[in-house]
Design goal:
This protein is of the alpha/beta class. The protein folds into three domains: 193 residues, 3-Layer(aba) Sandwich (Rossmann fold); 104 residues, 3-Layer(aba) Sandwich (Rossmann fold); 105 residues, GMP Synthetase, Chain A, domain 3 (2-Layer Sandwich), CATH 3.30.300.30. The strands form four sheets. It has an eleven-stranded mixed sheet with strand order 4-3-5-6-7-8-9-13-12-11-10, with helices on both faces. It has a four-stranded mixed sheet with strand order 18-17-16-19, covered by helices on one side. It has a two-stranded antiparallel ribbon with strand order 1-2. α11 links the parallel β17 and β18. The structure holds zinc ion.
Length: 441
């Protein structure tokens, strides 16, 4: 059960740290880093083994620069060593599980402890409060039903920073009507969901949805889409860079000079193709969590490209800035009934399917306007493919409200996946001609 005193303590300290002098922040970061490295060495078999193999001791990693001596932790390693990555101080069944399909369509399961869960909530709130969220604001979040129930009875009774979730699986017109009734102060959610909502509001002229500002996170949208959201709602749109593995990583403040990076809970590095740290320009984002003791992640590569920035923000916050490359922008899917879906809706739906843990990798391709191919590589197990096929089709129809005349599903089980010509792997893709999307994307 969430300890709200601890969560508010985290939030209070974080709000203050955002204005600390840079050298004080760095000292704090390095101290937490030494703690987590020592802890991982002492308690986490996977990292203990890695240190031993490299001939390193925790004392060799005294600061974030020394961290470059440690190799990248890959998704593959996590997938193959989940039990060995859990601290001996925790029982795996008592930890909260989170899952992602990341950028590869390969399910990845992670565990966090209660304190980490509270810290994540505090991190998200710090970003929102920095943009002007107030304690009793009506805060509407378009999100996965996975995240429902995030507020407790106590939190609802006292009405403090309570998010009201709206399911990302509702079709956008239902979302819009639901949100209109809620009269939100803050409109928050996946960036693509906020974009689709803005388009619906514009189309239907729902001018009564008047938040003070909008927040998009978890995926990146382009500048013209951001401008559209701001134009439709006549309020600012603040972008947040986050992922399942670490929650918020960096976020825009009202000055929007760049993204303030949460360096008091993460070490964020940018690396080249060889895993070497680059000191300027762009690189793959590699993060080390400073607080998740249940399952520490040291130098984990997320799969996004970020750009370092030496700019200072006029807002006075000293958390350093970074910029983003629109690396994760996926194209939207249009359905035969006129609905537009974010690819994320599909990946979230997949991650909630009862046999998701049995999938080694999956990919969804829209072949025709009313037909989808779902290709799945299963792990070696005893689950009957016929059962998975039948249940998956019924499940997707139900959760995405897709009747048989709107979409057919063709489930195919494969032994392996190949990359496309660009070397990239799109988990959800449409092979419809671009003319379909004119005016939508
Ligand atoms: Zn700022």
């Amino acid at each position: 059960m969430t300890n709200y005193f601890r969560a508010f303590y985290y939030l209070h300290s974080m709000m203050q740290r955002a204005y600390w002098k840079s050298d004080r922040l760095m000292k704090f970061q390095n101290k937490q880093l030494r703690n987590v490295v020592r802890y991982a060495y002492d308690n986490v078999p996977f990292y203990h083994r890695k240190f031993r193999e490299l001939g390193l001791k925790p004392a060799d990693i005294a600061n974030s620069e020394d961290l470059a001596r440690f190799p990248i932790t890959t998704k593959k390693e996590i997938r193959e060593n989940l039990h060995d990555m859990i601290s001996r101080e925790f029982k795996i069944q008592e930890l909260k599980g989170i899952s992602t399909s990341g950028s590869t369509g390969q399910p990845l399961f992670l565990k966090i402890c209660e304190a980490e869960d509270e810290l994540r909530k505090a991190k998200h709130l710090r970003a929102n409060i920095s943009c002007g969220q107030k304690i009793r604001d009506r805060w509407i979040v378009i999100t996965s039903p996975h995240h429902f129930g995030v507020s407790t009875k106590l939190q609802r009774v006292i009405g403090v920073y309570v998010p009201t979730p709206v399911s990302v699986f509702y079709d956008v017109s239902t979302q819009a009507l639901t949100i209109e009734k809620m009269n939100p102060d803050i409109l928050d959610g996946y960036s693509s969901s906020i974009l689709l909502l803005a388009k619906e509001v514009e189309r239907e002229g729902l001018r009564t949805i008047k938040p003070r500002f909008t927040i998009g996170g978890a995926e990146l949208i382009d500048d013209s889409s951001r401008r559209l959201v701001e134009k439709v709602f006549s309020v600012p749109f603040y972008d947040q860079y986050s992922c399942i593995e670490f929650n918020t990583i960096s976020w825009q403040c009202p000055e929007k000079v760049g993204y303030h990076t949460d360096i008091d809970s993460l070490v964020v590095q940018f690396v080249d193709n060889d895993g070497e740290v680059v000191n300027e320009g762009s690189g793959e984002v590699v993060c080390t969590s400073l607080f998740n003791h249940a399952m520490p992640l040291i130098r984990y590569a997320i799969g996004d490209i970020g750009v370092q920035s030496n700019d200072e923000c006029p807002c006075g916050r000293t958390l350093p800035l970074m910029k983003m490359i629109e690396g994760r922008k996926d194209s939207l899917l249009i359905l035969s009934d006129g609905r537009i879906l974010s690819p994320r809706t599909f990946t979230i739906a997949m991650s909630m399917f009862k046999y998701y843990a049995q999938f080694d990798q999956f990919r969804i391709v829209q072949k025709k306007i009313d037909s989808f191919q779902v290709r799945i590589k299963m792990k070696k197990n005893n689950v009957d493919e016929g059962v998975v096929e039948r249940e998956l089709i019924a499940y997707l129809r139900n959760v995405l409200c897709l009747s048989t005349d709107v979409a057919s599903f063709d489930i195919e089980f494969v032994d392996d996946f190949s990359l496309d010509r660009s070397g990239k792997f799109k988990i959800v893709e449409s092979s419809l001609p671009q003319s379909f999307f004119r005016g939508f994307s």
